[in-house]
Amino acid sequence: VVATLLCAWDTAFLLLRPDSLPGHSLHHFFTPYTLYVTVDTSWADMDDDFVVAQAWMNVVEMVMVAVGVLWYCKSARAGRGAEVLLFASVVMTFSKTVLFMAKEGLGGWSHVKQTSMMDFVTLWVLPNGAWILFPGIMMLQWGAALASPERLKSD
Prior knowledge:
- Helix content is 72%, strand content 0%.
- The protein contains 6 helices and no strands.
- With 155 residues, the protein is mostly helical.
- It is globular and about 55 Å long.
- It has one domain (2-154).
- It has helices spanning 2-15, 33-39, 49-74, 79-106, 117-146, 149-154.
């Protein structure tokens, strides 16, 4: 739930630009981004289509989570399908973040190279790394559980 709320906030920031940027009408809802857009300039770059595409993928991911949770809560018999949908959303989170970080690295760190090493690590690597680490752990554990011989026999 917390991850989905953070994802929604991040998505809103990106899709509401330029109004969400510092100095604009909606920025008071997004004040922590004042610092972040100086570390990763792609978040403020109105010509960067990748972050907009990523935001729309966030919308798809959040819909998957909402449908999966509602489906799971509605019916115990729907458990397996709901679990697969939620598992897919975790894979999506992991994959989007790997792609986002790989794009930056392969692009010569063009959006983050202006920042200090301390800010780069604490404000870019660690937060983005968390979106790889935790979904990665969930993928491994949940995937193993979904594919276990006992589970496969019971379905």
